[in-house]
Amino acid sequence: MAPITIISRYVAVIGAGAAGLVAARELRREGHAVVVFEKENQVGGTWVYTDEVDSDPLGFDPNRVAVHSSLYSSLRTNLPRESMGFIDYPFVTRSDGSGDPRRFPGHQEVLMYLKEFARVFEVEEMVRFEVEVVKVCLVENNRWKVSSKKTSDGDIIVEEVFDAVVVCNGGRNCQPHVADIPGIDVWPGKQMHSHNYRIPEPFRDQVVVLVGNSFSAADISRDMAGVVKEVHVASKFNEDGTYEKQPGYDNMWLHSMIESAHEDGTVVFRNGRVVLVDVILHCTGYNYRFPFLETNGVVTVDDNRVGPLYKHVFPPALAPWISFVGITWKTLPFSGYELQSKWIAGVLSGRIMLPSQQEMMEDVKAFYSKLEASGKPKRYTHNIKDYQCEYNNWLAAQCGGPGFAEWRDRMMYATTKNRNLRPETYRDEWEDEHLISEAQEEFINYTS
Ligand code: FAD
Predict the structure, then answer these.
(1) Distance from the alpha carbon of residue 70 to the mean position of ligand 1, in angstroms
(2) Out of 85, 217, 375, 381, which residue is the most buried by the measure of CB atoms under 10 Å away?
(3) Is the preceding omega at residue 308 within 30 degrees of 0, hence cis?
């Protein structure tokens, strides 16, 4: 067999969060020349905590002064560090005892880990800091023009042509999604999105309703409970009659969804309860957003489906010249990003072959039909919870590397189970020691 010729491409990576860092590393390992554009002055993306918040607390105004990170001050990871890290650079505790050694550490520890990753793999030298990409559009021969500007002197636009672009802008967590509440327009209270929640103190002695049923609602309700007068958590996933005082709290209740909000400041829940409320805090997730991307309608965001994307990464009509890392959710982010990045790097160099455009498109259509037949809403297109192991193993096989260790998947499920069993203490008490041992056995390959 003739040896494969590895082709080096000139590749732009947008963003230096976890996805952009590992994409840049994999692209360079494959022999590509890489420029990473990062609008902030440091790597880490989401994990760079800031006290600042958006100028529009709900995130509606497209011209708002927006901050990138959604972290609240008290945030600890919702995944154990063993399963959270990159595959070949485990997120282990520091041997000198510094940092936060907890299994579910605070956010500062994750940022330190990502910074170390960037240093160890010399990623920072590829990054143009404080440079925001404002436009990415197709030019001749399937190449991409990337227009960018320094965040400090916003008027000068620099244009540069690349062979390929890898989008790692954290587009999944950029645009707050808020709940639709009948009567909200006349309700006089304050509304905000969890993206703009930092600390509980501003809510002292207030009555707060949190809408949502995922990590932020669970964490923020507990963070607030010691300071606010009352906290009410409402979710569309709770049955209509739900009304439960939360064990261990004398001022926190779980409700069914909000039925309506009223001019007199009251909020009516579907369980019939009426509460006079100061603040509604939407912990309702995000919509995808790629404000710089111009693909002439080839890639669209429709009801939170980014598509069409072959295996959540390549738009068939533009593959492999534009790709996305980090679109998938309800998964282990960092290790998944690593495999997506390896795949992209190998495809761009010609070492890994993609199916034809038509075959990729058929695969996407078959995937959409399957989702529809199973009754999954379009919004859930990139939720890979039920097949993350299969998906990651498929990526690993494409890359010709070892499979995705099953303990990672099992640890994620063990954590979910533990969280349901011990919502207050799951970060400090667990029963999956056997999985930690398996993880540590694997880590020896990378840490010794
Ligand atoms: P980001 O980290 O958002 O990075 C994107 C980068 O792109 C940013 O640095 C941004 O400045 C830059 N950028 C964006 N647009 C441009 C542009 N136009 N030009 C130049 N640069 C640009 N995951 C876990 O594994 N464990 C957890 O416990 C966990 N908790 C989370 C809690 C919250 C509140 C949120 C929001 C997410 C959490 N996640 C968690 C998921 C988290 O999003 C991922 O872990 C991961 O950090 C996302 O990485 P990313 O690189 O895709 O995006």
Answers:
(1) 9
(2) 85
(3) yes
Is residue 3 in some structural domain?
no
C-alpha to C-alpha distance for 67 and 196, rounded to whole angstroms: 9
Q: Are residues 41 and 128 in the same domain?
A: yes
Identify the pLDDT of residue 19.
Answer: 98
Q: What is the Cα–Cα distance from 235 to 240, expressed in whole angstroms?
A: 10
CA distance 281 to 299: 32
pLDDT of residue 271: 97
Residue 14's closest CA among 66, 52, 68, 55?
68
Task: Identify the residues whose C-beta falls under 6 Å from ligand 1.
Answer: 14-20, 37-40, 45-47, 68, 70-71, 77-79, 84, 132-133, 168-170, 173, 216, 292, 326, 333
Task: Mark whether 188 and 324 lie in a shared domain.
Answer: no
Assigned domain for 85 exists: yes
Residue 156: the pLDDT is: 92
Pocket residue to mutate for ligand 1, from 36, 42, 46, 335, most atoms within 8 A of Cβ: 46
Residue nearest to atom 53 of ligand 1 (CA): 170
Question: Whose C-alpha lies nearest to ligand 1, atom 44?
Answer: 333
How far, in Å, CA of 23 to CA of 14, rounded? 10
How many domains does the chain divide into? 2
Q: Within this chain, do residues 319 and 221 fall inside the same structural domain, yes or no?
A: no
Q: Is there a domain that residue 1 lies in?
A: no
Pocket test for ligand 1, best of 169, 196, 337 (most atoms within 8 A of CB): 169
Contacts of 35 (CB under 8 A, 6+ apart): 10, 11, 12, 13, 126, 128, 160, 162
212 and 163 co-located in one domain = no
Domain that holds residue 400: 10-174+286-446
Mean pLDDT of the chain: 96
Q: Give pLDDT, residue 300.
A: 97
Ligand 1 atom nearest the C-alpha of 134 is: 18
CATH number for the domain harbouring residue 260: 3.50.50.60
